[in-house]
Amino acid sequence: MRETTAPFIGIGRHRMATDGVGVTTLVAFHGCPLRCRYCLNPQCLNGDGVWRTMTPGELYGEVEMDDLYFVATGGGICFGGGEPLLQTEFIRSFSDIMNPAWKLTLETSLNVPVASVQAVAPLASEWIVDIKDMDASVYRLIRVAAICLYVVIWNGWQVRIYRKRYWFACL
Amino acid sequence: MAKGKSTCKVLKEIRQRIADANGISYQPHECHYEGDCPGTCPACEQEVRYLEKQLKEHSRSGLGAKVAGVAAGVCAAIMPLSAAAQSADEAPVVRGAAPVIKKDTVQVKDLSGGRADSVTVRGKVVGATDGEPLIGASILLEGTNKGTITDMDGMFAVRVPADGSLVVKYIGYNDKTIKVEDLSTSWYNAIVLDDNDLELQGEVVVLGEVSAVNGDDMYYRQNDKPKSHKEKCEKQQLPL
Predict the structure, then answer these.
(1) Are the C-beta atoms of A74 and A21 separated by less than 8 Å?
(2) Minimal C-alpha gap between B161 and chain A (Å)
(3) How many angstroms away from the CA of A115 is the closest CA of chain B?
(4) Of A2, A102, B52, B138, which is least packed with CB atoms within 10 Å of its CB?
(5) d(CA A1, CA A83)
(6) How distant, in Å, are the alpha carbons of A36, A81, A116, B29, B109 from that of A45?
């Protein structure tokens, strides 16, 4: 059976206080269902923006050099991009082979099918959710829900409750 | 530049805490580098390798290795988490071909005598037995008395005629002569010197192999990268 691969736009090492707890390595996927004009990584939308295509094992080989920092600080890998929830099979495969002491963070807009969220929900320690809605009332609703319930995912008008920690950002 | 220095400082603090928690003698190098810094460098990476090696020895000798959470909170204390996880002003993660590590940190020594067909080659000299960098190894342009020596990290950079050869020498190791045309000019070349366990009768020149290492690998590792945590633990005889 052919091994899962995924396209990437880059890897950012030694990130602190932006992608989860501790020292993290940001692994940015290529590809996104959105076309935000303010996108920080627009190369994820270009066909020639692919930096490398790797298997989970190859990615592990690239990021394990910071294993000591991850374990010592409670950090790990933050999958972003691009939209990481377009690569749930890859993320699941990677979580199977990585050091189980690493924490996984997912930075996503959640503009994906619910099944994609459910596929990786048990794996992530933290979610960083970009709310792509300019309607202030929608943003306030989500903020209130997050404060009250502390664990809310907003996806296509469906609400799921997971006992995890979330950070919300409204762009 | 300030952010890179700040990152380096935090990482150094984490390494120190790991060393202290395990009774490992560790003296971080004093960095005099001036310029754009990504937060790490070959010297810092070598310190990580040193700690990993020491922790491995601790595990094998039954002392155990205490790493998990020893530096928890260091990042938060030094770089407080902001309420907005991502700022629109924050620089993007990567651009273009996304090199992870900046490599042009060694000053180039010109041995070409001004020849138009000269090229710049960079390399790191290590010993075959342990892979440790060889500090102060001689890098000579063959047929001349021009040369340089490797720095504290075993690295060098020279500008030489494209049709020339480099002679690499270090006491206790066999000399190695390498044609410039066999060296990569795109990334650092790993030059491995074999131990000299023979009684020499005069000078011995050995034509050896040079393996060009992928420039993305900050560690210039000679071995294959592990494909999983399980494989890494099995190879290094560490507990899972």
Answers:
(1) yes
(2) 33
(3) 25
(4) A2
(5) 25
(6) 10, 10, 20, 42, 42
CB pair distance less than 8 Å for A28 and B90: no
ipTM confidence score: 0.80
Choose the mutation target among A21, A65, A128, A165 for the interface with B, i.e. most B CBs under 10 Å. A65
Encode pLDDT of B151-196 as tens digits.
777 888 899 998 899 999 887 788 899 999 888 776 678 888 887 7
B44 plus B134 within the same structural domain: no
| E strands, chain B, in order | 109-110, 118-127, 138-141, 147-149, 155-161, 165-169, 175-179, 189-193, 205-207, 211-212
The β-bridge partners of A29 are A8
Do the Cβ atoms of A20 and A116 come closer than 8 Å? no
All domains in chain A, ordered by first residue = 6-131 (3.20.20.70)
**In the beta sheet, which residues pair with residue B102?**
none
* Contact across the interface for A72 and B14, Cβ inside 8 Å: yes
Overall domain count for chain B = 2
Burial of A115 (0-12, 13-18, 19+ CB in 10 A): exposed
What residues in B contact A57, CB-CB < 8 Å? 227-228
